[in-house]
Amino acid sequence: MNRQTKTKQAILDAALYLFHLKGFHATSLRDIGQKAQINPANIAYYFKNKNGLLEFCLTSYFEDYIDVLDRNVQVLDDKGPQECLMDLVRDILHFQAKNFLASSFIYGETALDSNLNREILSTYYMKENYYFQVVYEKGFKEKLFRHVSFPISMLQLKGQLSAPIIHARYSREVLHIFPQESYYIEKYIEDTIHFLHGTLFNNEPVRKLALS
Amino acid sequence: MNRQTKTKQAILDAALYLFHLKGFHATSLRDIGQKAQINPANIAYYFKNKNGLLEFCLTSYFEDYIDVLDRNVQVLDDKGPQECLMDLVRDILHFQAKNFLASSFIYGETALDSNLNREILSTYYMKENYYFQVVYEKGFKEKLFRHVSFPISMLQLKGQLSAPIIHARYSREVLHIFPQESYYIEKYIEDTIHFLHGTLFNNEPVRKLALS
Questions:
Q1: Is residue A205 part of a domain?
Q2: pTM given for the model
């Protein structure tokens, strides 16, 4: 990492930390500069203003996230829809845990229904939805998925995937589990896969064999 | 409703609407006054300041919410743990839909991990957790629930219950469903109950009959 990239990364990390802690509106460039030990003028040099910084945060997060989806859906034909969806769940939960602050900030903003970069959010959610739809459609077609409503099942899955981030504090303080620790991440992945088996997958190995 | 109660309610409604839209920090008493068409001095008379207003919002929301839980868990012995948990799911999803703005604001703040009335939130979440734990324990004891990890199952259920609120905009704009319309509420309840059957309930009617 060269010095410029390092500085940029330090700014991003400080920004995400403060957005997560205090919210976007309550955070100033001065706060971010103080946290990152960087002159606010320098932040302006890289990102113009707080909105530019936010846009960069969102875009780089979602580009990486969409890569995760894309990589998995590329091999849909080889793996089949059940394997593919299970791998998606695994990779998304790992990705979110690795990018905890950004995920947390983004889900928070989504929940608050703020006008904050509405277009960016919906653009990426449309893409995300497209990938899942491809997998579900193959699952329905091959009768490996039950006849459920796609949007309702997707909303349920979204709830499962976002819970360890959105309810992170609740998990720590009330349930006494630590959803960012790898032991719990793996356990949660396992149980989310049980959820897929229990609500979505047609677990009839004979039919599955007949198709392969 | 007398005039005082009406005024108070108008202030609360305006406050929740603005907190939800702009976030707590970005909302001023002046904004609330403007929205409710009430003099800001009047708001100060009823609630002292913005924090007092917030505390009142949270407290009255959670008192009603805890009532919903309490009413259901009171009849746990009559209904058994499976029926009781299904009724809880139904009533919670209805309650949240009825109090959409408040639910949305509270989940958003939870996701952002803000220090906003941390104590109030954790006090009520501890209570909520207590009620669920009572139901799960009876379910485990009577072998009507599978041997799952309570905190992980609870986190999953929390994800299911919060999804229609947290992902409301996503539902509308990406999935084209309207999770506040009664058709979708009922459909979502049905599928959340499928989730319980698929991941938690031991569906062995023989054993169930033997116990009753």
A1: no
A2: 0.89
